[in-house]
Amino acid sequence: MSKPAQSLRSLVRPSAAALLAGTALLLAPPVRAVTDPGAGSVDPFRASAGEVVLFERDGDGGVAEAGAHHDRPDGHAPLGVMGDHLHAPGSFMLSVRAMSMHMSGLRDGTHRESSADTFARGFAVAPETMTMEMLMLGAMAGVSDDVTLVAMLPYLRNEMSHVTAGGAQFTTKSEGLGDARVGGIVRLAGAKGDGLLLGNLALSLPTGTTNAKDSTPASGGVDVRLPYPMQLGSGTYDVIPGLTYTTATPDGWSFGAQGNVRIPLETNDRGYRLGRRTELTTWVARELSDSTSVSTRLGYTRKANIHGADPLLNPNMVPTADPNRQGGERLDLLVGLNWLGQDGALKGHRFAIEFGVPVWQDLSGPQLEVDRTLVFGWQKAF
Ligand SMILES: [Cu+2]
After folding, report:
1. What does the pLDDT look like over 139-156, one tens digit per residue?
2. From the CA of 195, how far away is ligand 1's center (Å)?
3. Are 330 and 298 in contact (CB under 8 A)?
4. What mean pLDDT is reported for the chain?
5. How far is the CA of 215 from the centre of ligand 1 (A)?
6. Of 50, 89, 279, 366, which is the most buried if we count CB atoms within 10 A?
7. What angle do CA 113, 115, 118 make, to 5 degrees?
């Protein structure tokens, strides 16, 4: 049975409110290195046409021939953040990201649990570890000064190890296309490097399967449908509205924040829909040289429990098959490195990496806890 009341529960829980307050503090305008208010002073952020040139050049922002100005490595957000910038009309960008998330050990609420605790609750199987790997292809295309289109296609590989109450261990795997996304980014106010506010809107398409199968000790060698975390897609069309803010100082600092929520529009053919997923993040980056910047980021994720249930999954067998043990909140601390080629064969190529560890997790458990996340990738505008 679906539980609409649960889905209406406020998105702003105390932890989220605290993070928003922190974000608001960080969004206070940075102190400018150039403070001369005198008449006729030249704002170093703005070209004569009123467009910002701090980050922009060629296809990566639209002010070609900007001369002395060059792209900054921190002109793009840390790699784990998407939809943080616009492209000039007629230019486009390709990107490849390789992401991984490692989970091990169980948690209920904020407390750790053992597999013995899970068996004491009556489950026959407890998950032990999970690795999620994703290869994400991305494309962006500027269609006007204020609108950029985006598309993303993920390929996923999941692996989960388990232990049974009898002590036997086994592993299940799933692999394939995930849910593709198409959407747009719209300039709401400001300009790049000088307080840019963007509206993000994406549609997630049900291209990933909800019928990933593998064999388990209980299935007698037959492939059976795997529990919710091992499925590759949601099975639903979802909308993902969001807001992104970025700004920078001429002396090499930049700041940003983004919030979005993924809202399923329907129930899938299996009889469930994933819980609403809310993400809030804020970051600070520091340019170390023309080509290198470092970043630190806080990321908050809240995932609601699943509404409805897949009748082929027995929620009493293993916690991963229980729709009411899928939700949770997590606060991650991430550090990143951006590199942008300024000349030679790698001119305009961006390489970046970002590593994260949770500093706090509160899960509808018993559920596997996240231990670390890693993303590295390449971007190039044409
Ligand atoms: Cu781009």
Report:
1. 999 999 999 999 999 999
2. 18
3. no
4. 86
5. 41
6. 366
7. 80
pLDDT the model gives residue 347: 93
Ligand 1 centroid to 150 CA: how many Å? 8
The rounded Å distance from CA 140 to ligand 1 centre is 5
Query: pLDDT for 177-186, tens place per residue?
Result: 999 999 999 9
**11-26+49-381 CATH choice from 2.60.120.10, 2.60.40.10, 2.40.128.130, 1.10.10.10:** 2.40.128.130
Place of tokens 């809107």: 201
Supply the pTM of this predicted model. 0.82
Domain map of the chain by residue range? 11-26+49-381
Question: What per-residue confidence (pLDDT) applies to 71?
Answer: 86
Strands (E), the chain: 92-109, 111-113, 125-142, 147-164, 169-177, 181-189, 196-204, 213-215, 223-225, 238-248, 253-264, 272-273, 277-287, 292-303, 307-308, 328-340, 349-381
- State the Cα–Cα distance between residues 210 and 231, nearest whole angstrom: 5
Q: How far apart are CA 180 and CA 238, in angstroms?
A: 11
Q: What is the pLDDT of residue 218?
A: 85
Given a cut of 70, whether residue 62 has pLDDT beyond it is no
Mean of pLDDT values over 102-129: 96
Query: For residues 31 and 83, which has the higher predicted lDDT (pLDDT)?
Result: 83
Percent of all residues in the chain with a pLDDT value above 70, rounded to a whole number? 82
Tokens for 243, please give them: 């807001």
- Distance from the alpha carbon of residue 163 to the mean position of ligand 1, in angstroms: 43
Residue 193 pLDDT > 80, yes or no? Answer: yes
What residues have their beta carbon closer than 5 A to ion ligand 1? Answer: 93, 140
340/342 Cα distance (integer angstroms) = 6
Q: How far is the CA of 193 from the centre of ligand 1 (A)?
A: 15
Residue 4 has pLDDT above 90, yes or no: no
Cα 63 to ligand 1 centroid, rounded to whole Å: 15
Distance 94 CA to ligand 1 centre (A): 7
What is the Å distance from ligand 1's center to 80 Cα? 13
CA of 139 from ligand 1 middle (Å) equals: 7
- Taking the centre of ligand 1 as the mean of its atom positions, its distance from the CA of residue 95, in whole angstroms, is 8
